[in-house]
Amino acid sequence: MKPFIIDIETTGRQDADAFLPTIAAPANYKDETKRNNYVKERREQLLDSAALDAALGCVLCVGILRNGAAPQFLHDQNERQLLHQVWLTLNTREASERFVTFNGHRFDFPFLVRRSFALGVPLPEWFPRDGRFLRHLFCDLADLWACGDRSELISLDRLARLCGLPGKAGNGADFAKLWEQNRKAALAYLEQDLRLTLALWNHLGCAAKPSTIEYAHAE
Fold first, then answer.
1. Going edge to edge, which strands form the sheet with 72-74?
2. Which residues pair with 3 in a beta bridge?
């Protein structure tokens, strides 16, 4: 099977505050100041991590790397249009290709689906509706490493270094700021993640033959 690698980058929405869950201090917090401080701190935590929550965040850019092709970057100021574009692009998967992600079962695909639900963007017919990702379509390298142990979590950077590959060149938490300040550098960061995922796909023996795309640091 040939890899169809996907990696998404997200950011918190400007209206995230309106969609926060109800925050209440624990019942044993009797002091009003302590309760207020708890609510304030929890609110700040949720907003700081809004990019990780489909109810508070949005899709900023989607990177795609297919066997033998240059990386493709999908982005649009209109998130609804972006999601349409993403699903149309994923619809071009060939029978010999398999969607490959790192932590895509827990984050990338659920985020895309939930944002599509929220914005009324239809999902393609082939996408599983029961949450069970079809093995012949999807490969999550983080799940492969876990060996069935759902408590076994590892980052892309750490797994790559464990396998003797270069680590990540930055932190995904900084992507949104980098996107605003230096679009070229942001795309280079995303490309490196795509190529690092490809390198792991080959290293972990997922392909019958090594991919024709070589791992390289993004310039």
1. 72-74, 57-66, 2-12, 97-101, 138-140
2. 98
Report whether 168 contacts 215 (CB < 8 A).
no
pLDDT tens digits, 168-195: 888 888 899 999 999 999 999 999 999 9
The tally of domains found in the chain comes to 1
Is 180 within the bounds of a domain?
no
SS3 46: helix
- CATH of residue 131's domain is 3.30.420
Measured distance CA(64)–CA(87) in Å, rounded:
12
Range of 120's domain? 2-153
Give which of 140, 136, 62 is closest to 98, Cα–Cα. 136
Tell me how far apart the alpha carbons of residues 186 and 205 are, in angstroms, rounded to a whole number: 29
Q: Which two tokens stand for residue 203?
A: 């290293």
DSSP state, 1? -
